[in-house]
Structures are given as structure tokens and as C-alpha cells.
Amino acid sequence: MRFVTFRRADGRTQPGVVEGDAVRPIATPTLLDYIALAPHERIAWHAADELLPLASVTLEAPLRPSRNVFCVGRNYLEHAKEGARALGRELKLPDVPTFFTKAPSAIAGPDATLHLQAEISPEYDFEAELAVVIGARCKNVSEADAMHVIFGYTALNDVTARDVQRAHVQWFKGKSLDDTAPLGPWIVSADEIGDPQALAIGFRLNGVQKQHSSTGNMIFHIPRLIAELSRGMTLEPGDVIATGTPEGVGFARTPPEFLRDGDVMEVEIEKIGVLRNRVAIG
Ligand code: MG
Predict the structure, then answer these.
(1) Are residues 114 and 152 in the same domain?
(2) Model confidence, pTM
(3) Domain shared by 193 and 169, yes or no
(4) Which of 72, 148, 220, 272 sees the fewest Cβ atoms within 10 Å?
């Protein structure tokens, strides 16, 4: 199933399930409320009698988590290599995943124009990522049990102000500016994805392919990420984990390529679809 948050013509926003080219509303106030239900309770909240054409609604980010988006740095070897090369550093791979976070205020919807602030940074960059949505409160999850706590998957573009990222010891600030976490277009349920480490993942800038890899190339696979993150720390339904980006990002190119006003970014992930956003820098 594909879960969305949509806005009707009258401005009301609510969650729903996509059925073909239509959307069936869900009766919970938000998709976050729906995900927090026990799995056997969820289906009762699908409103049976209403089906709206997808073309008649506007999709928003499928959810806004109640706390920061968890992210993983340097989780594809070729991206770790290109980053070390661009910064003139020796490549050192960590034994455990590098976690950082993005503020939920950075989240933007599919097809939304991202308003990036020219006076804050001249170095906005893109990062195509598979995002995991947690479906159950959990702690100390073993790798063997990790897939059972996943509600579904979506796409995230980890837009980054590179100079701000470098200026701070922690990456939080350079990764949390407004409109730098476009998410969507929907959350695809875990059963429909099957193996999340066998998905083609790519990024196009103005139609030109810049990133192309497979989620199988992650250094730390999703069960390991969930096991590490949940060690001694409770995960909540609706928590989002962005699993890192493959090679091909702008700052590591020769010469570096940063986002420009009017650019169109597309993150495409197999079995999920395309997350498209236009950039407005001013
Ligand atoms: Mg990233």
C-alpha cells in the first residue's frame, strides 16, 4: 500500500491510501496517528465510502515526525571515497554507523518548491536517500528482528548547505535549514518493498543523471542501522531514518556543482517512485 498525506481543494489536510489514480482517506487526524496504531487496528480507520481522484488533491510530505529525522552519514563506500577525495582527507571507515539528525522543520512535500536562502549559503547540494519509517515503539532491537519494526519506506533528499556543514563540528545546522528535507511522494508499505537492499536508487538534476546506485551498496544495511540506533534508545512509530546517499553528489564533482535557482531535482527509488522538487534560491 502507498500512504500519503494530501490537501483537498478546500484546504483540509488528511492521510490516505492510494488506489490506482485515486486516494481513499484515512480517518485518523494524521498519518503519524495511523502508524502509531497497532497493525490489527489500522484497517478499521480506512474510510470505506470515499474515493478522490489523485489529480484533485495536492500531496504533502507523507508525515512530519514528532522529532528529528535520523540520518546516516557515509553509508555508501563510493560516496565516502569521493567525500574524502574532495576534502583532501584520508578515507577512514567507521566500525559503527555515523548518525546525525535533521530538524523536522526542514521537511517539505513532493513537488514543493524549495525556498533556499542565498544569504545563508552559496553551496546547496543534493543527496538521494532511501528513508525507513518505523512502525512500532521498540528498543534494543536485534538485527534478526529489525525488519518487523518497519512500517514502510519513502524517499528523502538530504539537501545540505556544504559550507555550513563544514563550519560546524556537528552537521546538524548545515543539514537542518528550512526546506532541506523533501520527503515522499508516499510511504510504501514494507510488504510491497520486499528486500530494501535490492532497490535501484538515483538522482537527476534537470533531467541529467547524477547519482545511480543500488541500496545493496550500503555499508551498514538497514537491520544493522536499526539495531545500532535502538541500542539503549527507544524508537517511536513514525520515526524516520534516512539511510545515506550514494556517490555523485555535487560538492565532490570536478568542478563542484551546487544547486542553482530554477533547478529541478528528482530522487528516484525503485518500487517507490520519484520525489521531484524545484529549487528557488533568493
Ligand atoms: Mg545524507
Answers:
(1) yes
(2) 0.97
(3) yes
(4) 148
Shared-domain flag, residues 120 and 39 = no
Number of domains in the chain: 2
What CATH number did the domain enclosing 22 receive? 2.30.30
Rounded distance from Cα 100 to ligand 1 centre (Å): 9
Domain that holds residue 130: 69-281
User: Which residues are 164's β-sheet partners?
Assistant: none
pLDDT tens digits, one per residue of 92-136: 988 999 999 999 999 999 999 999 999 999 999 999 999 999 999
What's the grid cell of residue 52? 478522490
Report CA(262)–ligand 1 centroid distance (Å): 22
> How far away, in angstroms, is 201 Cα from ligand 1 center?
13
Identify the domain boundary among 39, 60, 81: 60
Question: Measuring CA to CA, which residue among 280, 77, 39 is closest to residue 182?
Answer: 280
User: What are the pLDDT digits (tens) for 227-266?
Assistant: 999 999 999 999 999 999 999 999 999 999 999 999 999 9
147-152 own/partner pairs: CB under 8 Å, 24+ apart: 147/190, 147/222, 147/223, 149/226, 149/230, 149/235, 150/190, 150/196, 150/222, 150/226, 151/35, 151/187, 151/189, 151/190, 151/237, 151/238, 152/3, 152/187, 152/188, 152/189, 152/190, 152/192, 152/193
In the reported structure, the alpha carbon of residue 130 is separated from the centroid of ligand 1 by a whole-number distance in angstroms of 10
Please say whether the dihedral angle defined by the alpha carbons of residues 28, 34, 36 and 41, taken in this order, is positive or negative. Answer: positive
Asked whether residue 262 falls in the same domain as residue 136, the answer is: yes
53 and 97 share one domain: no
Output the pLDDT for position 209.
98
